[in-house]
Amino acid sequence: MSSKSSQNEVTAIIVLHNNKKTIGTCLKHLLRGSVVPRILMIDCGSKDGGADAAREYLKARFSDKEEKGTPYFVVELGVNTGRAHAFNTGVHMVSTPYVFSLSPEVAVSRRYVEKLLGCMKKLEKSGLHPLSVQGLITAGTGTGRGTTIRSAGWKLRPDYICVHVAEGKDAGAFRDPGRVRRIPASDMSASLYRMAVLSKVGLMDERLFGFNEDLDLGLRSSLLGHQSYLLPTAVARSYGPAEQTLFEKQVIIGNLLYMQYKYNRPAILQNLMNNPAMSEDNGGSVRRGRTLCYMAEMEQMEREQMDMSVTKLPLPDEFYMNTSWADSTLIYPLWLGERLPAPWEKTVDGIVQVWEKMAYGIEELRDKIV
Questions:
Q1: Are residues 33 and 147 in the same domain?
Q2: How confident is the model at residue 323 (pLDDT cuts 50, 70, 90)?
Q3: pLDDT, greater one: 345 or 215
Q4: Would residue 76 count as lying in a domain?
Q5: What angle do CA 366, 367, 369 make, to 5 degrees?
Q6: Same domain, 81 and 139
Q7: Measured on CA atoms in the order 182, 189, 91, 335, is the torsion positive or negative?
Q8: Residue 110 predicted with pLDDT over 50
Q9: Is 198 helix (H, G, I), strand (E, B) or coil?
Q10: Residues near 345 by Cβ (< 8 Å), separated by ≥ 6?
Q11: Domain containing residue 158
């Protein structure tokens, strides 16, 4: 498979937010690959000059005549709208049949993209309808080869806490060259997605800001028969911090409340609301989670009871948490996910009906980029 032909098949979307230190390593490994996709970088208000560093790196890399064929583009949003919104913005600019979502803190192996693309096509030819494929993402230290798995996808624990598949396990023992595994959802740090499926089931739920939106997409897609898969022989290394920051923890707490509502788990949601740990607002995270549930409920009423199309309004400051209200009014959400049917409503016809009302075609939204 030639790199030139694959550029017409795959576009890599890299969302930047203060990643100047790692973006060079990320791009270096991507461009060394046996398959080099088109490159689209969306910068979410970086303050460290990451977008300029990426632009200069690519400009220097493609100054060679032999390498001028790989197109790249950098979009600067100016405000931290969240990874979900930034990824969606990139998707609306893509014309290739596949999108490769790549974290600027991940370095892929030479044949990583080639293996994922080959696996995706085999799954399609076998009569399956995959949403995504990812490889093993291991923990790297900068120069040494990581052997501990950081992520092999996403899953939900019985208490509906989001965790990585196989996190902490030995990568060598986990690999099985002859087996492609189904997983609940792909980790968008290094995953290949099908545009045809995204246009059917919708994009990342932007209420989730930048955490667990890929899990939400995988779970939502599985309801329509579009599964996520793991190819263990494709390996990438993550150089991001293993520990979550306080801000990340705050956003995830709010997302947890919202996802309980969205996936119709009222008992779990009520237990969380009654939990003493949730009584303290944790920097506005609980208030944000309740706000997201309230907004989703209002939209649901518009759809079902008033038979109205939902007006996309700027989200309140509880959503952004680290940006001012003046900044947040500049952002026009492109896609907000609807509450999923309750378990007893999950008939195939019912699901299709619900999602056809709210899923937007990629072509229709391409002109509505922020």
A1: yes
A2: very low
A3: 215
A4: yes
A5: 80
A6: yes
A7: positive
A8: yes
A9: helix
A10: none
A11: 3-238
Considering the entire predicted model, what is its pTM? Answer: 0.79
- Torsion-angle region of 41 (φ positive above 0: left; ψ -120 to 50: alpha; else: beta): beta
Residue 184 shares a structural domain with residue 43:
yes
Count the alpha carbons within 13 Å of 76 in the hemisphere toward its beta carbon. 13
> Position of tokens 């993402």?
137
Considering the domain architecture, whether residues 171 and 320 belong to the same structural domain is answered as no
CATH of the domain at 225: 3.90.550.10
- The answer to whether residue 334 is domain-embedded is yes
> Within this chain, do residues 313 and 342 fall inside the same structural domain, yes or no?
yes
List residues bridging with 331 in a β-sheet: none
- Same domain (yes/no): 221, 268: no
Of 329, 344, 339, whose CA–CA distance to 298 is shortest? Answer: 339
Q: How many helices (H) and strands (E) does the chain have?
A: 15, 12
Fill in the amino acid letter for 55.
R
Distance CA 255, CA 155 (A): 15
> Angle at Cα 179 formed by Cα 178 and Cα 181, nearest 5°?
165
Q: What is the pLDDT of residues 1-30, one digit of tens each?
A: 555 556 689 999 999 999 999 999 999 999
Residues 253 and 206 in one domain: no
